[in-house]
Amino acid sequence: MDLRKIKKLIEMLQESDLNEIEVKEGEESVRINRKKESIINTASPSVPNTASAPKHDSDRIHETMDSEGYEKIVSPMVGTFYRKPAPDKEPFIEVGQMIKKGDTVCIIEAMKMMNQVKSEYDGKVISINIGDGEPIEFGQELISIEKS
Question: 112: which of 5, 10, 76, 125 lies 20 to 30 Å off by Cα?
Answer without folding.
Answer: 125
